[in-house]
Amino acid sequence: xxxxxxxxxxxxxxxxxxxxxxxxxxxxxxxxxxxxxxxxxxxxxxxxxxxxxxxxxxxxxxxxxxxxxxxxxxxxxxxxxxxxxxxxxxxxxxxxxxxxxxxxxxxxxxxxxxxxxxxxxxxxxxxxxxxxxxxxxxxxxxxxxxxxxxxxxxxxxxxxxxxxxxxxxxxxxxxxxxxxxxxxxxxxxxxxxxxxxxxxxxxxxxxxxxxxxxxxxxxxxxxxxxxxxxxxxxxxxxxxxxxxxxxxxxxxxxxxxxxxxxxxxxxxxxxxxxxxxxxxxxxxxxxxxxxxxxxxxxxxxxxxxxxxxxxxxxxxxxxxxxxxxxxxxxxxxxxxxxxxxxxxxxxxxxxxxxxxxxxxxxxxxxxxxxxxxxxxxxxxxxxxxxxxxxxxxxxxxxxxxxxxxxxxxxxxxxxxxxxxxxxxx
Length: 425
Hints:
Layout: E1 17-22, H1 30-47, E2 59-62, H2 65-74, H3 86-100, H4 109-119, H5 126-136, E3 147-154, E4 159-164, H6 178-185, E5 195-200, E6 206-212, H7 215-218, H8 222-234, E7 251-256, H9 269-272, H10 277-281, H11 288-311, E8 318-321, H12 338-353, E9 355-359, E10 366-373, H13 374-395, H14 408-424
Parallel strand pairs: 1-2, 1-7, 2-3, 7-8
Antiparallel strand pairs: 3-4, 3-6, 5-6, 9-10
GO molecular function, one term: monoacylglycerol lipase activity
EC number: 3.1.1.-
InterPro entries: Acyl_Trfase/lysoPLipase, PNPLA_dom
């Protein structure tokens, strides 16, 4: 089969709006990376080894570590194809996380880290910044191979700063280097330093940014992605005609979490009732205050989207894959030991075999939906994404569908469309 190297045609030529969203979570980004590797492999079975995730999703959104993954999946290489295949991201984490988050094994290291967290960020970020700049180079936001949404937080003005390809035409000062955006969305308070950079528009106007981790604004960026698309629809952009802003049945969303603590492993109120500033900043190799607001952000978005999709009887269009059974070091965002990283890979692999879960709107808890496994749901999703791309290629005057890739459904759709076109003339 031919590989689908042509750009994804706009949703106006298809039936769906396809969105991929990746949560923040430091080294736990290995979990969604493992999930994405499986999905891309299924797409390659259908459409050839050249298939990449950016060929199928209208929007890829990511926060913090998810923002970095988003950049890796959508930045172009010299051949104009995605810089990273999904199966390369896991190895990227395994190779570089121990250097991004070096583990201090010396005596009294715990006390040393505590003192460091009181006087500055736990890690200086030099290796991470150099690595990101080396990989992403001079690529700017408007050069990504599909639309992206990457949140950060402006610490100077205390407001979210969302970098999205939908805005760069009307707000050229937002057309920052993808490297600067990735460093900013990953700048987790207490762990990594805030990031400052400038952009300049064609008129010479300079815009300054003072940014920290996007998890402060939206650790789960799925709702942001839908919001950006909805704004484009309400503006009457032709890419989405004739879709309506409230037509959630047309959205197909894959939202990937980076893992959560097991329910009975979360903090005990009787214990934290007496905590002061130090305990909220560091407790059992974690930062409870950051864990609390990032997980609350992720769960609230999941609950909201679950409510909307279930209310509209479109729950099958929203797939949330999250592991809420993490314990010990696996809950950390920065314990980058070989053992822990390996265990996180296994967590992602086991998650594929688990049943699809869905939020119980009465309890707010995720429960098994008794439908199928995450693995089978992703196989089905791969088929949907592949068929949607074929349909858009057929309908679009710019698409170039390969005859070897047309199945019976595609041929029928193509013939139907051609007949309507002929009659309209």
